[in-house]
Amino acid sequence: MSWHPGIPAAEVHDRGAVAVEADGLRLALFSLEGEIFATGNICTHAFALLTEGHVENGCVECPLHQGLFDIRTGRAQGTPVTKDLATYATRIEDGMVWIDTE
Ligand code: FES
């Protein structure tokens, strides 16, 4: 376990998707149905930041070639994306999001 503080949970819920860095990783925090999920923020297809994409039905759509990833599991939903995103555990403590980068 390697927990790192992110940003206030309220900011994630307000903005829906927020880019953060922790442990040298570029991560995405997503607000989904009252919970916060953390994934890698760089698309596994080419270089695009998923926090600049569109969130719908529990998935984020990459802004570059419209690849879809399930936010909860990181699972790639089909071409052009074939490699899943890494996902990271989160917890809320004193209103802050903490992310486990292990
Ligand atoms: Fe994300 Fe191509 S860079 S689908």
From TrEMBL:
Rieske domain location: 3-99
Transmembrane segments: none
Protein name: FAD-dependent oxidoreductase
